Amino acid sequence: MSQHTVLAGKRVVLGVTGSIAAYKAATLASRLTQMGALVDVIMTEAATRFVTPLTFQSLTGRAVYASLWENAHGGGGGPDDLGSHIAHVGLAERADLLLLAPATANTIAKIALGLADDLLSVTALAARCPIIMAPAMDAGMYENPVTQAHVETLRVRGVHFAGPVVGRMASGLEGMGRMVEPDEIIGHCRYVLGRNGPLHGRRVVVTAGPTREPLDPVRFISNHSTGKQGFAIAQAAVDAGADVTLISGPVALSAPVGVHRVDVTDADSMRAAVLAHATRGNQADALIMSAAVADFRPLRESDEKIKKAEETKRRRPAPFTLELVQTPDILLEVTQQVARPRVTIGFAAESEDLIENARAKLEQKRLDLIVANDITAEDAGFEADTNRVHFITAEGAEALPLMSKEEVGVRLVEWLVERLAEER
Ligand code: CTP
User: Fold this and answer.
1) Which of 120, 211, 296, 362 lies at a CB distance of 3.0 to 4.6 Å from 370, suitable for a disulfide?
2) Mean pLDDT of the chain, nearest integer
């Protein structure tokens, strides 16, 4: 998991309350820690009935606070440890984020009313940092007008809610009140921590994944793109505070929290979505075209499933000819618009003469930057989690070392931040 996210070095106070979903808070604490956050866990008394302080202490390597009156569990008494009597002030003051996951109906009610009778509610009352709550409770409790009123009160005061969602609950019943999964909660943390970042107020459109060009009702032409690189760029842009639209071909990925996702299938629908979201009356600050748009599509889409020729059925090989035509070049069309995005970035997948070919595309498509990758290189390309890319501009080429697709996304967003700053 990447250390290069908006979570690195951030102080997150994780408040765990008494729900069976508390066991998922252990995963959450572990992931946040792996992503470089400094996680201080506060548990309510009820939470300690479900999971022990030692669990969190082991996962975060830091003291765990479970009482207003007794000392913290573990932590070794280092300079970062707070004595229990001042813990509520100290934890609240130095936190970048207060995350309550799971947040029970009882704790939500207490915080909405300003009650402060345990370390977590005291900390919430003293906190000046953003607060995220991930509710977890029985559907009846969540839907009760009392809980709804408390949620609304907190929302109006700026608390950000992650879920809950409809799903199976501890009671065995289905209903609204299930806590969202840890990865999604982390997405909310990134969104909230990033929202005032360097791309705050900027509109960024990212395309991702392959396109599918239909041949008949059951067949299509496509490619191996997984969308991983584009989704990683969209996440990095959210981390930097951008307002992100992610236009995606068919992929098996869920969109980062906070992005506006637009699903498309073929090159034509991707073209329409890009023009609508990035140009004309809706000019974006940046378009990052990482989708692997199919260059060709079948000339005709058959309404019926295409049958094998009679001869082929009799096992005599008969050539089948498929006529193809070029798809519209989306980037080219975008950069020809008067109201084009301020910055336009393309990708080039090359198997030979990487720099020269990519530079030719940069010029021909009138791009500000092209991210070129050698698809024959080891550990790079469509299905890998890593990429080896070059950033090519009119000024020169920079070869980046082998890095995760997440890191490529971060580097690209850093480049964009600088380029947009130069413009102002
Ligand atoms: N692209 C596009 N519209 C297309 C095809 C590609 O906007 N119909 C974009 C891709 O999203 C990518 C860039 O153009 O950002 C380069 O795509 P690539 O397929 O590598 O280049 P082509 O210009 O199609 O050239 P060639 O296939 O001949 O290498």
Assistant:
1) 362
2) 91
Q: How many helices (H) and strands (E) does the chain have?
A: 15, 22
Task: Convert the pLDDT of each residue in 159-217 to its tens digit.
Answer: 999 999 999 887 888 899 999 999 999 999 999 999 999 999 999 999 999 999 999 99
Ligand 1 atom at minimum distance from 364 CA: 23
In this structure, what token pair is assigned to residue 247? 């236009």
How far, in Å, CA of 22 to CA of 15, rounded? 10
Q: Which among 106, 144, 196, 223 is annotated as catalytic?
A: 223
Q: pTM of the prediction?
A: 0.91
Residue of 193, 160, 180, 183 whose CA lies nearest to 7: 193
Write out pLDDT tens, residues 373-392.
888 877 766 677 888 899 99
DSSP assigned state of 254 = P
Q: Which domains does the chain have, with CATH numbers?
A: 11-193 (3.40.50.1950), 198-423 (3.40.50.10300)
Structure tokens at 7: 């979570």
Q: Is 196 designated active site?
A: no
**Residues forming a β-bridge with 399:** 390
